[in-house]
Amino acid sequence: MKRILAVLGMVLFSSLGAVAQNRLITGIVADAENKGIVAASIEVQGKPFSAITDAEGRFKMNVPEGKVTLNVTSIGFVSKSVVLEATENRVSVVLKENAQELKDVVVTSFGVKKQRKSLGYAVGELKGEDLTKNKEINLGNALQGKIAGVNVSAPVTGPSGSSRVVIRGATSASGLNQPLYVVDGIPIDNTQQGNAGMYGGADKGDGMSSFNPDDIASMSVLKGSAASALYGYRGSNGVILITTKKGKSGTGIGVDFSTNSTFNTPASLLNWQDQYGAGAPDANGVPTRFTNLQELRDSYYFAWGDKYDGTNSLAIDGTTKPYKAYGKDNVENFYRTGYSFSNTLAISGGNETTNFRLSFGNTKDESILPGTTFGRNNVTLSLNSAPNKKISIESNAQYISEKSKNRPYLNDSPRNPSFPTTFMTPGTDIRWLRNPYDVNGGEEDYLGANVYHTNPYFATDQLLNSDLRKRFIGSAKVTYNITDKIYAKAVLGIDDINYEYTEIEPTGINYNIGGSIEDRIENRSEFNASGYLGYKSDIAKNLSLDAFIGANRQDNRYNGIKMKGNNFIVPFKYFYGNTQPDKTEKLFSEREVNSLFYSADLAYKDFLYLSLTGREDWFSTLDPADNSIFYPSVSTSFIYSEVIKLPEWMSYGKIRAGWGNVGGGLQEAYALMLTYTTPDGQTDSQGQPILGVNGDTVNNKNLRPYNVSTIEFGFENTFFNNRLSTDLTFYQKRTTNDIADADISKASGYRTTKINVGEILNKGVEFAINVKAIKTPSFSWSVGYNFAYNDSEVVNLSDKIPTKLLDDNRDARASVVLEKGQPFGVIKAYDYLRDANGNIVLDTNGRFLRGNLIIAGQGVAPTSMGLSNDFSYKNFTLSVFVDAKFGGEIYSATNQLGTRYGLSEITLPGREGGVAVSGTDVNGNPVNQTVSAYNYWRSYSDVTSNFVYDADFVKLRAISFSYNFPKAYIQKTPFQAISLAFSAHNLWTIYDKVPNIDPESNYSNSNAQGMERASMPLTRNYRVTLNVKF
Amino acid sequence: MKNKYIKIFCVAIVGALTLASCDKGFEELNTNPNALTDPALKSMFTLAEIYVDGQDFSNTRGNNIYAAQYVQHFASLGGGSKYTYSSEYSGALFGETYGKGLNQIFQLLSVTPNSPENSNMVQALRIMKVFLFQKLTDTYGEVPYFEAGKGYNGNIYAPKYDTQEAIYNDLLKELDEAGTALDANKAFVGNADLYYQSDVTRWKKLANSLMLRVAMRLSKVNPAKAKEYVEKAVAKGVFTSNDDSLVLKHDAGPAGVKTNPITSSWVRNDLNGGESNIKFSKTFIDLLKNTNDPRLRIYAKLEATGNNNPASQQGLPNDAKEFPGGDKKLFSDPNTSTVLRLDAPTLIMSYAEIEFILAEAVVRGWNVGGTAQKHYEDGVKAAMEVLTIFGDKVPAVTAAEYNTYITTYPFKTAGTDAQKIEQIITQKWIVLLFNGFEAFSEYRRTGYPVLVPVNDPTGETKGTIPRRLIYDQSELITNEANYKAAIQRQGLDLMTTRIWWDKV
Q1: What is the DSSP code (8-state) at residue B386?
Q2: Where would I find the TonB-dependent receptor plug domain in this sequence (chain A) (predicted)?
Q3: Pick from B21, B103, B274: CB nearest A449
Q4: What share of chain A is helix, strand, coil (3-state, %, to 5)?
């Protein structure tokens, strides 16, 4: 109430300013398209008379008698002075757009556009053309290397998979640490549908794969807490604001058509030895090839036989073939060239009051993995109208359908086609397994006794999973200007997702002959309604206020059903009704968050800005006794170049500072108390009802969202007439009361609990520099470089638990953990067994022994950077983008198993004559002997820290070349513009140190970063794009 | 027009503000409509009884793949028969027992009001707890006991490991107290008791019979204490017929808690699966075949042909790396008409086992009454007769068949004590089929039956039969200090490390 009184006071005060003048003039300020400019300022030069234009660009003011000069200014336009003769009382001023300044208007929280110079915090921006230049099917991946402090890593899954975007380091031990995505002001769902963990699994994509990059006008990244504070409990991981393309008023109807085709080629980095074949040491330790088919198949990966000599030998398909290496190109031979094709047709236009854009997008992708496909259709409509100066309406609607078939299984061997493909001995050509069926139509037993190794041709030929997601995202925003200075706004938004998922273990798959099916049908929706009351005006001389108060109600609902059936009654017919039903599960949760918030931006002249925000959130999922939290922020910006006289070569200087407090990790619904449920969905046994403890988590009634506060300082400068600009940021982000989603001893009766004790600290620096190196009418060259370093530390996990396991490698011989005092997500692996002096201890047979688990690296690279070079010559443009990460490590189970299996080239030394070792045994006795290569390298492979590699890389990520057809050429055609572009992605790894795999081969999109195992090969992409405008 | 717009906006804003300004309805919204917040005690008790038998997870991994192959009931081409190590298989019993059975029991005890009408249920739960803890400690050695199961009630997230001696002392005390406190005049749970339908007298016998099993395990490490409690149990009254045997019935489906936990995965996946299926061990088949044991037709069958003719049965050697002759169909599976049904009952503790313990006690000179021969013969007879629980698809063992068997292979009354114990334990080994954990414990305690260990390069024991399973490796991370303290006392976390009662 106080605030409203204050606002009313201000309104009164400012209207008093306009008394006692003597000559009334009227006028209009318009842009080049003759559209009125709102809030332009008109001042009489040298006299204290001023006015501001209304929504249609009109103004009325008193001026002194006689000839006067009016100075007209408006944000985004070049200022202009107009001379008004003594007799003139009407004036019409046309202002030219100032491209430089317009570009410097950025989208901030709740979609509010602000001048970049007024911001007290860092905001990263990406324009639509940056997204379409190297189009990614998943929008999240388009951010890779583009914005300092935004770290993107995508699991190697092909295009339909998810992306992992982490801004300024992970904030929470238990959260996903991914930003909130907001599209046209509406928070949208980015649930990770599935993830490959210790036992494998498929990456089932995320919410960001829904969007068509051609529909995106810009993305704005709110990195720190000061920037995201208005999002309260959702702001902890930063916010990415996405603005979709709109129609333009007064342009008539235009049609844009864009089409592109991409070829994706598998590029295997495996370089296994090709000298020794499938086999093992015989009883006397002599390397001997397998001569028994069962043995050969059971150990299809075991390359400890004798040297290839070309003599006739048994092959895995049961035939006899010369004993030599056939399988050098197994990976390339198994994978195919993938292909994707996408089109967008957009119709847009508008008249003076209304504009629209309607687009249809279509994407089809055939993965490099045979049988894996992804398709997406987007229909997007944007309709905006401002029928009069009081009211404006914006509405956006998107309907998306996404269909995916056979998302690849990763990591562990069942159904992962990359596993046998990777580990096949060189003596086998993978194509010999090409007919994967036995006489019954089940899986032929090429891979021996271990049924959990699936023939890759079987895995890709069978329908293993499919999903369909239908999604509607809609928003409506109505703004009503109650007076020139006071406005009211209402916003409604919905993201409604219907998801169907089917996972099949087909009839005859060796580890589950009867087969099984799981059907899941889910609906996930989020509804937001908010209202704002705003005030925007000068409140005193040189001091302006832009403020609002508002409220939001957020409802989330999740409802679904999961059905499982086993043993297909009629084999090979894959539907639920054809099974012995196993388990049906109801999936349901509902929660609500209500919020009140305010924002106030004060500007003094054009050089000092102060912004204050606050938000109170009430949560349905917290203990009713204490269920609300307040999130404030304050930030300031000072343009010192406006005040201090700077040297000629320095054009602009700004310092900024911001602090904010946000939250994350909202308690799940129903997690306040222990509940009881029927076990496995079964209600009775022997006619007696049964009931058990629900879940294996110890519920904590006092759990609260964790808290993240960031303080940041920034320096923005431009030099040499804006030819060179720099932006430097220092930040410190501290997470307190982190929710330790702690694994607890199973002997407690439970597996996990949640406690608010964790503390995580991220400190970092971000730097960006942009240079317009050459700018002539026909040739230009600009360079952009960004650099980010983030130093993370797990300050505390819990008072009881010093270590938290994020994920184990499948063999449980390496893991990613959080450990007190260490960076976020360290890789732990086994060291050699060592004596008290640190010397390596051997066993009595001269083999290495597994010692302690040690910290062998960190899974997330602290340093990342991107370098872009853009050249244009007449109608040609060339863009070259290089990105790099440094300081991270990766545990490669491919290399570990490759060594254990004798596939790796490092296992060649000692094959003839053994390896001489010397040292001491456990009891300190000397050991001096020659160990066979088999014993040496296998024991070496037990020491898993040997396979934690430095994952630094520098990659030529993308290069694109485009040509705009000159107007003269197309004058006589119906086209207004045509451009053709060629681009290539992942063309060249300029620098890396990991043998056999790509350093970015991580299989998980969870916090457990830094583990690899039998990954899909790297793909190189080649694309041609045609854009046409009618 | 103008007024109308203003009105719409005022309504929208005021609406949003009022909605947000409070938290009305939050408590109701946050009550799970698909779960219960108050337990039904009897229904929880029934599930606890089911959990005492272990679930599919631990039985497939810990029992079928490991323990039952160590003692050569069964065999397969890899895994357990060769003593290889898998952290998941090895740790399965640990996580499951604490998380399912013990947690159910501890939670039920914590919500059960302390009143006379609940007393019998509480005593029954104490007895069931002993079943689970003994299996755990016998399998791993030291385990968390006194601080275990207090994650929710007490917030102990890293419970201390207790010495096996301390655990055994408490197990005996619990059985003694619970057996005494059971009172036929007090209420029980009616038919919610799947074991004995609330027959308190048989529950008392169960407490004492279990005390017999627990006590006898100490014969090697502390014969005096073993003797004391064996005699005490007998004095209090143990099983006297197959009516007393603890049998848990199962349903054929759907998969989950209702089906037989030993056979669930076996029938669904392994029986028809690839090349990895578990077969009867040659050791087991040969012993029964060579003695014309009438039980063989009930136990074994060649699944592919349906042939359960004892003469056709063939066991897989535990050291086999491939199927001899290349055809897995030639090797015997457990009989799918009897023991390997999804709804086959499980024999948690049999009267036969009790008679064998008594026979051994007599041989050891302890005061339990009767002669070793009589106990032995009663045991063998009961072990044959109890197979009727597996249905009538295969003809039951007749009295004549028993007589022929016992006259052909009589109790070695003239033999040495060692020979007698070998004979007794070998019979017990047969009746413990499908209870590999118990057979594995008894093998370690007595060394019987005499088994030829497999020496395979993939094994972790250098050609000796394991002496325990390796702990759940998550303990290294979640309970490091206590785990390390236990290793310090007990010896390295290896399969070859002997536990307290298994000292040489």
Answers
A1: G
A2: 120-239
A3: B274
A4: 10, 50, 40
Which tokens in the block code for residue B451?
Answer: 């088994």
Written as one letter, the residue type at A646 is L
B321-330 pLDDT tens trace:
888 887 888 8
CA atoms of A423 and A454, how far apart (whole Å) = 12
Contacts of B27 in chain A (CB under 8 A): 624
Which residues, other chains included, contact A681 with Cβ-Cβ below 8 Å and sequence gap of 6+?
Answer: A583, A584, A585, B256
Q: Could you tell me if B243 lies within 8 Å of chain A, comparing CB atoms? A: no
User: What is the distance in angstroms between the Cα of B310 and the nearest Cα belonging to chain A?
Assistant: 28
How distant is the Cα of B12 from the closest Cα of chain A, in angstroms?
Answer: 6
Q: Which segments of A17-151 does DSSP mark as H helices, in order?
A: 99-103, 128-133
Q: Is A590 helix (H, G, I), strand (E, B) or coil?
A: strand
Could you tell me the end-to-end alpha-carbon distance of chain A, in angstroms, rounded to an integer? 54
Q: Does B77 touch chain A (CB under 8 A)?
A: yes
Q: Is B1 on the interface with A (CB under 8 A)?
A: no
The residue type found at A838 is G
Any residues with CB less than 8 A from the CB of B158 and at least 6 apart, and which? A744, A745, A748, A800, A801, B478, B479, B481, B482
* Cα A534 from Cα B375, distance rounded (Å): 93
Tokens of A809: 């490698």
Q: Spelled out in words, what is the top-level CATH class assigned to the domain A21-98?
A: mainly beta
Which of A532, A588, A682 is facing B256, going by the closest CB pair? A682
Best to test chain A binding among B3, B42, B157 (most A CBs inside 10 Å): B157
State how far the Cα of A133 lies from the Cα of A517, in Å rounded to an integer. Answer: 41
Classify strands A409-410 and A201-202 as parallel, antiparallel or unpaired: antiparallel
Per residue in A896-942, pLDDT (tens digit) is 999 999 999 999 999 998 999 988 888 888 888 999 999 999 999 99
- Note the pLDDT tens digit of each residue in B166-222: 999 999 999 999 999 999 999 999 999 999 999 999 999 999 999 999 999 999 999
Cα nearest neighbour of B324 on chain A: A294
Domain B41-198+467-499 has CATH 1.25.40.390: yes
pTM: 0.76
- What homologous superfamily does CATH list for A128-267+337-415+464-675+699-825+860-888+951-1029? TonB-dependent receptor, beta-barrel domain (2.40.170.20)
**CB atoms < 10 A from the CB of A187, how many?**
19
Q: How far apart are CA A787 and CA B427, in angstroms?
A: 75
Tokens coding A83: 């001379």
Name the residue ranges covered by the structural domains of chain B: 41-198+467-499, 273-334
Spatial distance between the Cα atoms of B6 and A390, rounded to a whole number of angstroms: 10
Of A566, A592, A801, the CB nearest to B29: A592
Task: Please tell me the distance in Å from A323's CA to the nearest CA on chain B.
Answer: 24
Residue to test with chain B: of A413, A444, A699, A745, most B Cβ within 10 A: A745
pLDDT band at A20 (very low <50, low <70, confident <90, very high): very low
Q: Looking at CA atoms only, how far is residue A494 from chain B in angstroms?
A: 15
Ranges in chain A annotated CATH 2.60.40.1120: 21-98
Do A510 and B16 lie within an 8 Å CB cutoff? no
CA distance A623 to chain B (A): 8
